[in-house]
Amino acid sequence: MSDGANAILVRMRRREQAAASRTPRRKGVDRPLAALAAVFVLAQLVLVRPVLGLGWDEIVYVSQVTSDTPAAFFSAPRSRGVSLLVAPVASWSSSVPLLRVYLALLSGIALFLALRAWRGLFPTRVLVLGGALFASLWVTLFYGPQAMPNYWVAIGALISVGCFLRARADRSARAALWGIAAGAALMAWMRPTDAVWVTVPLLVLTLVRRHWRLLLALAAGLAAGAVEWVIEAYLGHGGLGQRLSDASRIQGGLGWQIAVDDQLRSLGGRALCRPCTVPMPNPLVTVWWFVLPVLAGLGLVVAARARRLGRTLIPLACAATAALPYLFMIGYAAPRFLQPAYALLAIPVADALWHLVRTPGRKWRPVAAMLVALGLAGHLAVQVAVLEGAVSRNTESRRDWDRTAGALHRLGVRPPCLLTGHEAIPIGYYTGCSSGATAGHNENTTVADILRTADRLPVAHIAPSGGTPPRYARTWPVHRISDLDVRVAPPAQRSGP
């Protein structure tokens, strides 16, 4: 009995010692990652600023959960994840600054958790530098506090791939299985098709190696995140195949289309490049894009020499499949589309940079460190400059919508009301009106419905100055607002308020 009691005491002491030894190590990892996340949040609030108005896509997502504005048309490619993400604030407050602060804080917490999922796979210094590389991109800072899905797909990709690597290395790590499912669900919740592209290498690997527990966790996460989108496909789009077909048509028809040059043009700060006919930006703006695959390749070599190839090869493979459709399958570009790829590339690239700094002999090590530091400083300066330009342009365009809304109010177009024509969705949101379209990607009404609405409510059609209005609005009085022609249905047509 005494021997048994002693054995129990010894085991208890060992567990206590192991727990005590793990606690400082965890704090040693968590504190630098928490500091990075805090800086990321602060940079968003300072550089992007909470007063930035809502953009077109944000309006579509946010309007689904607001109580004071009509819901904008929700097209086939979109998913409800962003709407649910903003609902805790947007459902009861119309304050855009409050929403921006909420999303900035949430994005910082998410970055911390995503990098923490890689704990033990790479040294802390690599995780901090990788997180800083991703967080300092102008596209990450710009979209972090916005109601858009791509940043959250990137976070889900980091969580899912990091937990996959941990579960693969330690089959007893149950928390990692939950992390795989959670990351996959987050991606599918935001953009189901992107989630599939990101996880293709993971699905293939689990099937080839027969990692059934990992496959189950991954499949369960994808299914949990996409179930609402699939149900909605059958309820409102004629089935899953029809919704996928409609989504492809809205995106210009998915197929072999090289968009690499379009992505390069968009790096200059364009939120959407469609059609992408703008000139190439300054080479200083695009040089990092060409350095990125070189450093990723170096990271692969470093990992192979250190006999930890899988930890680097798997995220690189997921980054490649995540980027594939947006580089070679659509005819336009938006820099936010590649955020999941950038997030997955960041850690192997950081590993390569640390290798460049630490590997040379004692004589050349300071030179290597100085060159890497100068390169990173220059890269950061370029990203901040591009960000400032993007924020300035978007701030002005959203103020234009607000000014147009004010002019419409003075013309008597007040809620409840309906807008059709050019930029009807964003201008309608700022005016407080519903938006309608009889053709195109956002088709949601008919001419007969518009005319019936004009008998009851204020209705206006918007067109660029000198543009040809539709037949139903040609006799309506025209008003010039900035560079727009606004035709308002005559009040005499309305039989009631």
Automatic annotation (TrEMBL):
<feature type="transmembrane region" description="Helical">
    <location>
        <begin position="214"/>
        <end position="235"/>
    </location>
</feature>
<feature type="transmembrane region" description="Helical">
    <location>
        <begin position="369"/>
        <end position="387"/>
    </location>
</feature>
<feature type="transmembrane region" description="Helical">
    <location>
        <begin position="126"/>
        <end position="144"/>
    </location>
</feature>
<feature type="transmembrane region" description="Helical">
    <location>
        <begin position="150"/>
        <end position="167"/>
    </location>
</feature>
<feature type="transmembrane region" description="Helical">
    <location>
        <begin position="287"/>
        <end position="306"/>
    </location>
</feature>
<protein>
    <recommendedName>
        <fullName>Integral membrane protein</fullName>
    </recommendedName>
</protein>
<keyword id="KW-0812">Transmembrane</keyword>
<keyword id="KW-0472">Membrane</keyword>
<feature type="transmembrane region" description="Helical">
    <location>
        <begin position="101"/>
        <end position="119"/>
    </location>
</feature>
<feature type="transmembrane region" description="Helical">
    <location>
        <begin position="313"/>
        <end position="334"/>
    </location>
</feature>
<keyword id="KW-1133">Transmembrane helix</keyword>
